[in-house]
Specification:
By secondary structure, this protein is of the alpha/beta class. It is built from 24 helices and 29 strands. The strands form 10 sheets. A 7-stranded mixed beta sheet has the order 22-23-21-20-25-28-29. The protein has a 5-stranded parallel beta sheet with strand order 5-10-13-1-14. Strands 3-2-4 form a 3-stranded antiparallel beta sheet, covered by helices on one side. The two termini are about 45 Å apart.
């Protein structure tokens, strides 16, 4: 049987020709996202004024900076950008009207209106000023109408609600399209609001009491909103959707009645590109909140969390250099880079991939930087990275120590030596809600058989401590046994499978190989080596399938073996298809190198049961094999005792 070597348990990376990370050109996270860049480019090129992009990411992504960087790379035009002002409606003061201005021209426009008003009040010729305003604003017809009404109003001696005729609501300092990111969303922050004043018991408002809101601030550019906030407040989404579809945003409030219901400013134009960001779970929830709109949004893309190590290792190092520069960290020497790379590969559980999760990579680099500075080092070394990892492990592994205490006290019955029929060590991963630390914890699984109808009883399922996937896995075990040994005659033996000393709900199919091997041991009456632990899923033909959490599972069993004493025989049996997921800690790797711990990849249950029992699995037709022993036992039990005696007498005659 092939046994993995220490070198098989770690990823390998291309050789480096640098001595420091500072020699690498810094790159942004956005530079690793060609799919997202393609989507942003297409969003910009769409000529409709209001379009939406769904950008699916992952926890820890700085969506705001990523989107800003992507948009900056695409160099969007400013054809829909405008300044926005509100003016008193001289024909209906309760309905202020909007005027759109060329971007950046707002202050000059306000000054020109003041100058125009002065000329009108002094009965001076104002035609030159009007023409200048219209030329500056591209002969905008709405502005022309407003100037005409204003001139007539002054000529007739009309009064004004507010001495300042123009409220410059949105002014762009540059002609670069804005990128507005929404946080802590509510009705007022997103849609703006009409504020009110009270004077002598009278509530009133005017155009200078309007508050713009994020949508108006983003007009001509991009509005980036986290989906989870919209999901928590569905009313925000549906009003936003209506504004995007109609192209206009009104000033209605969330309440049915406003303080002054007759004061209704004119709905302002909406011209923006909307980018909704969130993880796949929020995207799924959004499709349930508004199935019609979710189907209509045709621009979608995913942020990629991983890079191919062989193809993009240089890019990965450039991302690290960008994180170092962004967080103002010490330089990293060349020996520290493989450790950071190994950490990144462990995050995505693949030897040939590298995670580019900014928050976790940046956090490790920052911790290592702190360690280096405390030691007054000018550069971060491999020792500093190792110390940072050890620190973090120590801070988080209290729950592991509590779990191991039961093994120290011999309250948890786990054997890592000897042989037992129908008993096997399984491997599991413990995930605690709200805690970032997952860890492996071995579990003892036992199987017993008795006369019955061939059913395999799953105690966890009967006790309602198992999820649906686990229940499916137990049914697959029954399917394999029936296929292998019950093609001609039904099995006269039934079995019970149980996870011993398990008091919480379990789920998943990663224990199906473990349960099957325990059951085969009980059927054959062949003991299982307790120095081995098993993980893997199986199908009905006995093929071993991959599972998750492999590194934590192996390290968990190694931890228990270390507590009870390493014998040099202990090890684990894993799916061969999981080999690329192996990125183990140094303690396990050193033990494998020294022959104190062993890792066996298998592709079929035959290989696993042979390792566990020391017996060749063989086939049911071979009497001297393990499967042949099971077939003989089942055949003997299937024949009634009286018939067996009669047949023996019949064939025993000479």
């Amino acid at each position: 049987m092939i046994e993995l070597k220490a070198e098989d348990l770690l990823p390998t990376y291309p050789a480096l020709s640098i001595s420091r990370l500072s020699e690498v050109e810094p790159r942004r996270y956005a530079d690793t996202q060609p799919r997202a860049l393609s989507a942003i480019n297409r969003l910009i090129s769409l000529r409709r004024p209001c379009e939406t992009l769904l950008l699916a990411g992952l926890p820890g992504v700085d969506y705001e900076q990523t989107v800003i960087d992507l948009i900056d790379t695409c160099s969007p035009d400013n054809q829909t950008l405008f300044d926005l002002c509100y003016a008193e409606n001289l024909l209906n003061p309760a309905r202020p009207l909007w005027l759109t201005l060329r971007p950046g021209s707002g202050p000059a426009f306000c000054a020109q209106i003041v100058e125009l008003l002065r000329h009108l009040n002094l009965h001076l010729d104002a035609e030159a000023i009007v023409n200048k305003i219209l030329d500056d604003q591209g002969q905008d017809p709405k502005i022309a109408d407003y100037l005409e009404v204003l001139s007539a109003h002054v000529a007739q001696g009309g009064e004004f609600v507010h001495p300042l005729l123009i409220n410059l609501l949105i002014h762009h300092q540059t002609e670069t399209p804005p990128v507005v990111y929404g946080r802590d969303l509510n009705w007022r922050s997103l849609f703006g609001a009409v504020n009110y004043q009270t004077e002598q018991g009278t509530i009133f408002s005017h155009h200078h009491l309007l508050e713009a809101g994020l949508i108006r601030e983003a007009c001509g550019g991009f509005l980036v909103l986290p989906l989870e906030e919209l999901l928590d407040q569905p009313d925000l989404w549906f009003k936003l959707r209506n504004a995007m579809e109609s192209g206009f945003l009104d000033w209605s409030g969330p309440e049915e009645l406003t303080a002054t219901p007759l004061f209704v400013p004119e709905a302002s134009p909406v011209r923006l590109k909307l980018i909704l960001v969130g993880n796949p779970m929020t995207m799924a929830a959004f499709s349930q909140l508004d199935p019609e709109m979710a189907e209509r949004i045709f621009l979608r893309t995913d942020l990629v969390a991983e890079l191919d190590a062989e193809e993009h290792y240089d890019l990965f190092l450039e991302v690290l250099a960008g994180l170092r520069q962004q967080r103002d960290l010490l330089d990293f020497d060349v020996a520290a880079l493989p450790l950071l790379s190994r950490f990144a590969s462990r995050l995505c559980e693949h030897q040939q991939m590298l995670a580019i999760v900014e928050n976790q990579l940046g956090a490790l680099m920052q911790l290592a930087d702190c360690v280096a500075r405390e030691e007054q080092s000018a550069v971060v070394t491999a020792e500093h990275v190792t110390a940072a990892l050890a620190e973090q492990e120590y801070r988080l592994n209290y729950i592991v120590e509590q779990s191991d205490q039961g093994v120290h006290d011999r309250q948890i019955l786990l054997q890592t030596d000897g042989e037992v029929i129908g008993q096997i060590n399984g491997l599991s991963v413990i995930e605690i809600m709200g805690h970032p630390y997952d860890f492996g914890e071995p579990v003892r699984l036992t199987a017993t058989v008795h006369m019955g109808d061939g059913d395999v009883a799953d105690i966890e399922r009967k006790a309602e401590l198992a999820g649906h996937i686990h229940a499916k896995a137990m049914m697959i075990i029954h399917g394999y046994i029936s296929n292998q040994f019950g093609e001609e005659n039904p099995s006269p033996l039934s079995a019970n499978l149980v996870f011993e000393q398990s008091y919480h709900e379990i789920d998943g199919d990663s224990a199906s190989l473990t349960g099957l091997c325990a059951l085969l041991s009980a059927l054959a009456r062949k003991p299982i080596y307790q120095h081995l632990a098993v993980t893997g899923a199986v199908d009905q033909f006995g093929n071993v399938q991959p599972v998750g959490g492999l590194n934590e599972k192996i390290e968990g069993f190694f931890r228990i073996c270390s507590i009870q004493g390493l014998t040099g025989k202990q090890g684990v049996i894993i799916p061969a298809s999981n080999q690329l997921q192996l990125i183990l800690n140094d303690e396990v790797i050193n033990a494998v190198r020294e022959g104190q711990f062993h890792i066996y990849p298998v592709s079929h249950v035959d290989e696993a049961i042979s390792l566990l029992t020391g017996c060749v699995a063989g086939s049911p037709d071979e009497p001297d094999t393990l499967f042949g022993t099971i077939r003989n036992r089942l055949d003997d039990l299937a024949v009634p005792p009286s018939s067996a005696g009669w047949l023996a007498r019949l064939f025993g005659r000479g």
